[in-house]
Write a structure and sequence with these properties.
11-stranded parallel β-sheet; about 35% helix; about 15% strand
Length: about 290
């Protein structure tokens, strides 16, 4: 069989992430505490979102990831932004992705009608992690139900994300998530890895061993979907695990690998969010 050519995805200015809640997060997951919101552009009013999107388009960008802090119910408070999202899609034609958290069937349909193309959806199938790490009083059924609503009534592309090691560095429920998702045949599955971040309660927790992470990817590789290793992973992973993933072709996409790896392994570079499907990449930048 011919070798797969792993693609290096570089979002950057071509596909920036914005926080519609600024630096505010009501959930305050124990691994983040809202610190990663500081790395996003803050567009905490619908007007700011629209004008920032105009700048992205003017500067040659292809899309926008709409994210932010979550409420205590595990939701991104996006509803006031829906008119701006519709306007951005109609006037600018950007690829629009959103990280909405838990949604109802009605909310899933609202996202589709507003012109959202992609939903980045983090699915967690462990109640101890949901309650003890995310500080969220919901069940695994709530996460599964949201995924079903999104698949049945939501935007065209639903990109499930699995945060590996979220249970204090232990890999357990992630295999169940892979098996569950395989029943729905998603176009992509994105693997993230918990970063033990300074000044959070989970700083210093042990991370999964290299072989454990690799074995999970091998398990997921059995299915016919694109596999992406996303932007959230510790720096040490980029050094000790990325080369194995690339050499053994355990992923089709890898986000922000070390620059020397791009040259060393002759990785094709795509300036986009890794959740964007092949057909949209071909339409916008001619890459498939």
């Amino acid at each position: 069989m011919p070798r797969r050519r792993v693609k290096a995805f570089i979002p950057g200015k071509a596909f920036p992430s914005v926080s519609i809640t600024g630096s505010r997060c009501w959930l305050n997951c124990r691994y983040c505490m809202g610190r990663y919101l500081g790395q996003m552009e803050h567009v905490d009013t619908p007007e700011k979102l629209y004008w920032y999107a105009r700048q992205v388009k003017k500067n040659g960008g292809i899309g926008l990831l709409i994210s932010g802090g979550f409420t205590s119910d595990g939701k991104l408070p996006y509803r006031a932004f829906l008119p701006s999202i519709k306007r951005i899609k109609k006037e600018l034609g950007l690829i629009l992705s959103i990280h909405p958290g838990l949604v109802s069937r009605e909310e899933a349909a609202e996202l589709r009608e507003a012109g959202i193309d992609i939903v980045d959806y983090e699915i967690i199938l462990d109640v101890q992690t949901i309650r003890g790490v995310l500080n969220l009083h919901r069940s695994t059924d709530d996460f599964i139900r949201t995924y079903e609503y999104l698949v049945e009534d939501g935007p065209p592309y639903i990109a499930p994300h699995i945060l590996v090691g979220a249970k204090h560095g232990i890999i357990s429920w992630e295999y169940r998530a892979v098996e569950l998702l395989s029943q729905y045949k998603p176009y992509i599955i994105v693997f993230l890895a918990l970063i033990p971040t300074k000044y959070t309660p989970m700083y210093g927790i042990p991370m999964p061993r290299t072989d454990e992470f690799i074995n999970l990817l091998k398990h997921a590789r059995r299915y016919q979907w694109i596999i992406s290793v996303g932007c959230m992973r510790p720096r040490s992973f980029r050094t000790r695990i990325d080369p194995i993933i690339i050499d053994k072709e355990l992923a089709d996409r890898i986000v922000l690998p070390r620059k020397d790896y791009i040259t060393m392994y002759d990785l094709k570079t795509v300036y986009s969010c890794c959740s964007v499907p092949d057909e949209l990449l071909e339409e916008t930048i001619g890459i498939r």
